[in-house]
Specification:
The structure holds two protein chains of two kinds.
Chain A (H helix, E strand, L loop, with lengths): L1 E6 L6 H14 L4 E6 L6 H4 L15 H5 L9 E2 H4 L15 E4 L12 H17 L2 E6 L5 H10 L9 E8 L2 H12 L4 H7 L4 H6 L1 E8 L12 H20 L7 E6 L2 H5 L6 H5 L6 H14 L9
Chain B lengths: L2 H11 L7 E10 L8 H7 L9 E3 L5 E3 L3 E9 L7 E14 L3 E12 L8 H5 L4 E4 L5 H9 L10 H13 L15 E10 L6 E7 L4 E9 L6 H25 L14 H6 L15 H11 L1 H32 L2
Parallel strand pairs in B: 6-7, 8-10
Antiparallel strand pairs in B: 1-6, 1-8, 2-3, 3-5, 4-5, 5-6, 5-7, 9-10
The chains are: A alpha/beta, B alpha+beta.
C-alpha cells in the first residue's frame, strides 16, 4: 500500500504526523518505508533523529538523484539502528522494519519528464514489493512532486497496488479553504489526476483529510477558560464544522484529527510511549490519535466508497 | 555458449599474461506475480531481443535465460588505490527466471589491458562482447578490491545501475499482475573473479554478507573458466536470496502472536513457492563445483536451509495437531 501525504500550506504538521504514522505502523508490526519527496526541504531525517540526514542525505544517493537517474539505487536508512534518539534505538519486539529513504540535501524542485515518471513507477514497484506500507511525504501545495506521483500512479503497472492520499490541514478557516482548493479546485489534485488518466470517482474516493493541531474543547486544559472565551471557541468550532462540510472536508472525508500538543509546537519529533508514560512530556491523547490514525490508514472500512 | 562468451575466449587466448579480472553484479528478487508463471510466459517476458532465443530448461529445475544484451561503456574504473584507470568496451546483461518465481538480473564484464595505447574504433570493442580494455597497466587485485568496495553514488563503471535497470524492465513487464503473495527484499551479489595460472591456488577467496541486501564474493579462476563464472555467481545469488527470504519470512511470522496456530498460515506462500527451489549448483559447469563445496563448508548454506525447512514443517505439523485437538474438544463437548 502506498500512502501519499500532502497539504496545501506549510506548517500543517504534515511531515511530523506522517513520521509518527510510519513509526506507529511499524510498532503495530508492519514493514514500513518512509519516502521523503519533500524536495524543497527534506526534514524527515531530523524528525526521526537520523544524524547525517537531518536536511536530506549528503551521500549523493537520495531520492532527488535517483529520480534524475544519477544513482541506480536510492539510499535506505534503517531507522531502528541509525536513529540517535535513545528510545528509538533497536527494533522493539514485534515491530516491523522502519526504513527512511531520504531526499538529497540542497535538492530543490526539478522539471518532470517522462523518464522521471518511469523511474518513479519503478521505485514504487520495488518499494511495494518489499514493504507493506510505503509512506510518501510530498511538499506543500501543487508541487511538481505531486504531478510526478499523479502521473506515476496512473500507470498500468501500478493498478494492482492500493494508493491512498492524506491531505493535512489545520483547523482554521484559511486552512480548510486551502485544503479544499488543493483537492477539489480547478487546478486541484482531482482535476490534475483525471487529466493524467485516473478515474475521477476512484481518485476522489482515495483521498481523506487529517486535521492537525486541533484544540479539544472538552479537554481539562480548556477548563481554565473564562466563560466568554469558551463560548467564543464553541461558536468558532461550529462555524468551522459548517465550512468543512460545505467544502467537502466534513466527517465523511476526515480520517482523523490530531490534537494540539505543546511538544509538537516546540519541536517536530516522534511521540513515543515513553514520552507519554515516563517523561510525561507529551499528552496521551496525542499518541492515541496517532495510534488510531495509523490503524485507520490500512482499515478498508475507513476507505469505503462515499 | 553464446557468441559473447566465446569471443571473450578469442580475445584472451592471444595473450599469455593471465592478468584479467571479471566483475559482475547479480540482483535477485521475487517475480511480481501472484503465481509461478509457466515456461511460455517466462519466454515471452525474457524475449529482450527480437529474434534471439530465450534458453529454456526444465531439469533439474525450470530455468529460463534471456539473450545477452550488450552495452557500450567508456569510463573510469574504480580502483582501491585510487589510481586513475580508464576503460573502453562492452558490458553484458541478462535476466533469468527460475521455477517461474525468482527473477535474476545480471551485468558483467571481463577487464584486461589493451594492446593499443589509444582508443580504437567501436567496431573493435563491439567484436569483443563483455570485454573492457584498459589503457595503461593494471593491477587486477586493485581493480577487484575497488569494485567490491565501490560506493553506490560513484561515477566509475556502474554495473549496479545496469543490473537494476534490467531488473526493473522484467519486474515492470505488462505480462505480470504485480500482485505477489508475499513481500520480500531484492538482494545484490557483487562478485569478482581474477585469473590465476594453473599452478596457483584457485577457487573461493571470500564470501561476505555486507548488509541487509548486499553480498560480495571474490574468486580466483583459471583463465579458461572465466566465462562460466557468471552462471556460478547467479546460482549462488539465487540460493543466498532463498535463504535470506526464508529467514525474513520466519522473522515476520513470529511478530505479533507467534504461538498462535494461525500464525503458521503466514508461511503458506513460502511453502507453496520457495521450498522446492533449493537446487545448489544446478546448470553449473562441473569444474566449478568445488567453489560451491567450499562455500558449503564455510557458510553452511544447505545446512541452514534444511534446518529452516524442517522447522517450518514442524511448525505446520504442530499447528495442525493443535487445530485438530481444538476441533475434537469442541465436538466432544457438544
Amino acid at each position: 500500500m502506498i500512502i501519499l501525504s500532502t497539504s496545501d500550506k506549510g506548517g500543517t504538521g504534515r511531515s511530523v504526523t506522517s513520521c509518527n504514522l510510519a513509526y506507529r505502523r511499524a510498532l503495530q508490526g508492519s514493514d514500513v518505508a518512509y519516502l521523503d519527496f519533500d524536495f524543497g526541504s527534506p526534514t524527515a531525517g531530523a524528525i526521526l533523529s537520523v544524524s547525517g540526514a537531518e536536511r536530506g542525505t549528503t551521500s549523493g544517493a537520495g531520492l532527488h538523484h535517483y529520480l534524475q537517474d544519477r544513482v541506480a539505487e536510492p539510499e535506505q536508512i534503517d531507522v531502528w539502528s541509525a536513529s540517535e534518539r535513545e528510545g528509538l534505538r533497536g527494533r522493539p519486539m514485534g515491530a516491523g522494519r522502519l526504513v527512511l529513504v531520504p531526499g538529497d540535501q540542497g535538492g530543490g524542485e526539478f522539471p518532470v519528464g517522462t523518464e522521471m515518471v518511469d523511474r518513479c513507477i519503478q521505485l514504487f514497484l520495488s518499494m511495494e514489493a518489499e514493504f507493506e506500507l510505503v509512506l510518501v511525504d510530498l511538499s506543500a501545495g501543487r508541487s511538481q512532486a505531486a504531478d510526478l506521483i499523479l502521473s506515476a500512479t496512473a500507470a498500468r503497472q501500478l493498478q494492482a497496488i492500493t494508493v491512498r492520499w492524506l491531505v493535512f490541514h489545520r483547523w482554521t478557516r484559511q486552512h480548510i479553504i486551502a485544503a479544499s482548493g488543493l483537492v477539489f479546485g480547478e487546478r486541484g489534485l482531482i482535476e490534475a489526476g483525471t487529466e493524467r488518466g485516473h478515474d475521477r470517482a476512484d481518485l476522489e474516493n482515495s483521498i481523506r483529510f487529517v486535521r492537525t493541531a486541533v484544540l479539544d474543547l472538552s479537554s481539562p486544559e480548556m477548563a481554565g477558560l473564562r466563560p466568554p472565551q469558551a463560548a467564543w471557541l464553541q461558536s468558532c468550532n461550529r462555524e468551522l464544522q459548517e465550512l468543512a462540510t460545505k467544502t467537502k472536508l466534513g466527517r465523511t472525508t476526515m480520517l482523523g484529527s490530531i490534537p494540539l500538543d505543546p511538544v509538537l509546537q516546540w519541536r517536530e519529533q516522534l511521540i513515543s510511549d515513553n514520552d507519554v508514560v515516563f517523561s510525561q512530556i507529551a499528552n496521551p491523547q496525542t499518541s492515541q490519535a496517532y495510534e488510531d490514525l495509523a490503524k485507520r490508514l490500512v482499515h478498508d472500512e475507513a476507505w469505503m466508497s462515499l | 555458449m553464446t557468441s559473447g562468451t566465446s569471443s571473450v575466449h578469442r580475445a584472451t587466448t592471444h595473450r599469455p599474461d593471465p592478468g584479467l579480472v571479471a566483475l559482475g553484479e547479480v540482483r535477485t528478487g521475487l517475480l511480481q506475480h501472484s503465481a509461478a508463471i509457466p515456461h511460455q510466459l517466462a519466454e515471452r517476458i525474457l524475449q529482450l531481443v527480437p529474434g534471439e532465443r530465450v534458453r529454456l530448461s526444465q531439469r533439474p529445475i525450470a530455468h529460463a535465460l534471456s539473450p545477452e544484451l550488450m552495452a557500450g561503456v567508456d569510463c573510469r574504473l574504480a580502483a582501491a588505490s585510487g589510481t586513475h584507470i580508464d576503460g573502453t568496451g562492452t558490458v553484458l546483461t541478462r535476466a533469468s527466471i527460475t521455477g517461474g518465481t525468482v527473477v535474476q538480473a545480471s551485468a558483467r564484464a571481463v577487464v584486461g589491458p589493451a594492446r593499443a595505447d589509444h582508443r580504437l574504433p567501436w567496431s573493435h570493442y563491439m567484436a569483443r562482447p563483455g570485454m573492457i580494455e584498459t589503457r595503461g597497466k593494471i593491477e587486477v587485485d586493485d581493480l577487484a578490491a575497488g569494485f567490491i568496495g565501490q560506493p553506490t553514488s560513484s561515477s566509475a563503471l556502474d554495473l549496479s545501475a545496469l543490473s537494476r535497470r534490467m531488473m526493473d524492465v522484467i519486474q515492470g513487464s505488462s505480462q505480470l499482475d504485480h500482485a505477489p503473495r508475499m513481500r520480500t527484499k531484492r538482494t545484490r551479489l557483487r562478485w569478482t573473479a581474477r585469473t590465476v595460472t594453473a599452478e596457483q591456488p584457485h577457487g573461493l577467496v571470500e564470501f561476505a554478507i555486507e548488509d541487509d541486501v548486499l553480498r560480495t564474493l571474490q574468486l580466483r579462476t583459471k583463465i579458461d573458466r572465466i566465462a562460466m563464472v557468471a552462471s556460478l555467481c547467479e546460482n549462488l545469488a539465487l540460493h543466498d536470496w532463498l535463504l535470506s527470504t526464508l529467514l525474513e519470512l520466519i522473522e515476520r511470522e513470529q511478530r505479533g502472536a507467534p504461538h498462535a496456530p494461525q500464525a503458521v498460515l503466514r508461511l503458506r506462500p513460502a511453502i507453496d513457492s520457495l521450498l522446492h527451489l533449493w537446487m545448489p549448483a544446478a546448470h553449473i559447469d562441473e569444474s566449478l563445483h568445488p567453489v560451491w563445496e567450499a562455500l558449503e563448508r564455510r557458510a553452511g548454506f544447505t545446512r541452514q536451509w534444511e534446518q529452516l525447512r524442517d522447522r517450518i514443517r514442524d511448525q505446520v505439523t504442530l499447528s495442525a495437531v493443535t487445530l485438530m485437538s481444538v476441533v475434537t474438544e469442541g465436538s466432544a463437548s457438544e
